[in-house]
């Protein structure tokens, strides 16, 4: 039967069972489309990365003998709409059967299922064969439970997939080494140089310019440094195992003005577009650990495993368990606008300046910058979660809605009322000072609360707790903070609130 198979831009999984043999009756199609470049304003490096990886994947399939139709962004036959492109190919090639892999995004899932309902030819869907868990596995796991605790899910994943287990017990005797994953980096130990790839993307850059796609962020060279094909992705993974894993856990939460990546893997982009899968990432890390057990401590490895089989699978499961309502949740009723400096880095607050410039320059920030700097500030200043989502969804190369939304709206902004995080991730300047060197060269004083030079986080923090008392006051995990707030001198609280209000009203002046 003459069959058309769609490959979405984040479904570049060459290990998928679709590709085990060639079939002259099967044609694969991939489209660069305005539908995808324009639903939010993306970082220029994100668009480059997707197009580069898609083009490379299409070439790889062709070289293996598969039939491939590829629409570049400026091709005349490209309608720029998924449904219109598919309809056109179905007609032009007299297609008798249409097939696709289940998308990870709700938006595309809806669009494709509606499209299939409108067709009068056979249609079939396939799993993307990427994740450990199926779409609704987490939902079933938590069925009937009051909370969706990540730790419970994670332990079950460790047992089920026999990762770092000794029989029924966790290897090393502990499930979680989170507490030993909180070291500040002070210039030592030395961080190995980053693994850069030299991918010539000049043709893609000129295609993006010609199409006049509106983007954010910077791209300063002709070459693109993220991996864009499977062999580069595997190289990146091996580099992580050989050079970075040994300290990953220790410095997972550390931040530093001279270091963008520290000991992080930089692997999210290639995993999210499925050039490599989580099972092979975990397999490589565990094998390397067992071969180097005398050098690498279990806490480094467990810290990494938790991110992949814990957080990553959990976020995806939560997305499918809670969409579509999740996308509009705003439990804390936040309505402020995102400050202009989120798009420029033009602020006197050094922690924000560093994290935002980092994001604009590299389409990357590591987890703690996303959570405890930009996310923390957005929550303390009570920004509308729609605005926060749009920023996070656009700016990071790895941002795809299933993982961005749950992290941003849920974990970072507490807009889901605690389904993902049991309490809001907020802090004053002292946490930022504890984990980074940002405060050392900041215009503001990390210890002061109400003077002109006082760190804005210090007043924003107490003001947030006070403003949200009606909603958060009964949260048991916030009890200690509220009792400190209750003991605060009323005059001091008033001064704190006055300063916080001034910052919230004119954020770009600080
Ligand atoms: P490492 O620190 O080396 O971690 C290894 C891998 O673990 C990552 O590549 C990632 O696949 C996985 N991982 C770690 N933490 C998480 C998490 N919380 N959720 C899901 N996977 C995780 N990650 C994305 O992939 N896309 C996003 O759009 C995204 N948005 C985020 C927004 C906010 C507000 C926050 C707080 C976190 C977000 N994350 C997102 C999670 C995390 O910050 C990134 O996965 C990580 O920084 C990617 O860099 P890395 O590959 O060097 O990660
Ligand atoms: Fe950020 Fe405050 Fe430290 Fe400045 S003093 S870097 S604003 S936490």
Which labels suit this protein?
510 residues, alpha/beta, Rossmann fold, Serine Threonine Protein Phosphatase 5, Tetratricopeptide repeat, two-stranded antiparallel sheet, 20 helices, binds flavin-adenine dinucleotide, binds iron/sulfur cluster, PhrB-like, Crypto/Photolyase_FAD-like_sf, Rossmann-like_a/b/a_fold, Cryptochrome/photolyase family protein
Describe the structure.
This protein is of the alpha/beta class. The protein has 20 helices and nine strands. The chain has a five-stranded parallel β-sheet, sandwiched between helices. Strands 6-7 form a two-stranded antiparallel sheet. Helix 10 (278-291) runs antiparallel to helix 11 (298-322) and helix 14 (385-395) crosses helix 15 (401-412). The chain is globular and about 75 Å long. The relative contact order is 0.10. The model has no long low-confidence stretch (mean pLDDT 97). Bound molecules: flavin-adenine dinucleotide and iron/sulfur cluster. Flavin-adenine dinucleotide (FAD) binds at residues 264-268, 271-272, 307-308, 311-312, 315, 366-367, 370-371, 375, 392, 396, 398-399, 403-404, 407-408, 411-412.
């Amino acid at each position: 039967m003459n069959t058309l198979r769609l490959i979405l831009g984040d479904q570049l999984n060459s290990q998928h069972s679709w590709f085990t043999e060639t079939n002259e009756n099967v044609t694969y199609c991939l489209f660069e489309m305005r539908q995808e470049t324009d639903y939010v304003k993306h970082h220029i490096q994100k668009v480059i990365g997707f197009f580069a990886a898609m083009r490379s994947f299409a070439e790889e399939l062709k070289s293996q003998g598969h039939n491939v139709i590829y629409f570049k962004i400026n091709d005349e036959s490209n309608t720029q709409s998924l449904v219109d492109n598919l309809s056109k190919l179905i007609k032009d090639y007299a297609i008798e059967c249409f097939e696709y892999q289940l998308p990870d995004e709700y938006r595309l899932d809806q669009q494709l299922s509606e499209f299939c309902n409108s067709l009068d030819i056979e249609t079939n869907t396939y799993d993307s064969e990427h994740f450990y868990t199926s779409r609704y596995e987490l939902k079933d796991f938590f069925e009937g439970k009051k909370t969706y605790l990540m730790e419970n899910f994670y332990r079950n994943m460790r047992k089920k997939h026999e990762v770092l287990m000794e029989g029924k017990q966790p290897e090393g005797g502990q499930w979680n080494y989170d507490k030993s994953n909180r070291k500040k980096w002070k210039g030592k130990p030395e961080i190995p140089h980053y693994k850069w790839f030299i991918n010539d993307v000049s043709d893609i850059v000129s295609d993006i310019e010609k199409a006049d796609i509106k983007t954010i962020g910077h791209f300063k060279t002709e070459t693109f440094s993220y991996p864009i094909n499977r062999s580069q992705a595997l190289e990146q993974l091996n580099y992580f195992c050989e050079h970075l894993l040994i300290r990953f856990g220790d410095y997972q939460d550390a931040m530093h003005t001279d270091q963008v990546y520290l000991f992080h893997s930089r692997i999210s982009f290639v995993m999210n577009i499925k050039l490599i899968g989580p099972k092979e990432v975990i397999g490589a890390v565990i094998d390397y650990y067992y071969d180097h057990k005398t050098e690498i401590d279990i806490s480094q490895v467990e810290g990494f495993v938790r991110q992949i089989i814990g957080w990553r699978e959990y976020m995806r499961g939560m997305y499918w368990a809670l969409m579509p309502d999740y996308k509009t949740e705003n439990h804390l009723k936040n309505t402020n606008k995102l400050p202009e400096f989120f798009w420029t880095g033009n602020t006197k607050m050094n922690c924000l300046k560093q994290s935002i410039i980092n994001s604009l320059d590299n389409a990357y920030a590591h987890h703690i910058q996303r959570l405890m700097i930009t996310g923390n500030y957005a929550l303390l200043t009570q920004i509308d979660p729609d605005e926060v989502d749009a920023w996070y969804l656009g700016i990071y190369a790895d941002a795809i809605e299933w993982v961005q939304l749950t992290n941003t709206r849920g974990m970072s902004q507490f807009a889901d009322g605690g389904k993902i995080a049991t309490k809001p991730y907020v802090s004053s300047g002292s946490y930022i000072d504890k984990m980074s060197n940002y405060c050392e060269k900041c215009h503001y004083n990390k210890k002061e609360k109400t003077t002109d030079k006082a760190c804005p986080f210090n007043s924003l923090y107490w003001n947030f707790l006070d403003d949200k008392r009606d909603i958060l006051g009964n949260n048991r995990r916030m009890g200690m903070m509220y009792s400190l707030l209750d003991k605060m001198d009323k005059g001091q609280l008033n001064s704190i609130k006055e300063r916080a209000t001034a910052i919230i009203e004119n954020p770009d002046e600080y």
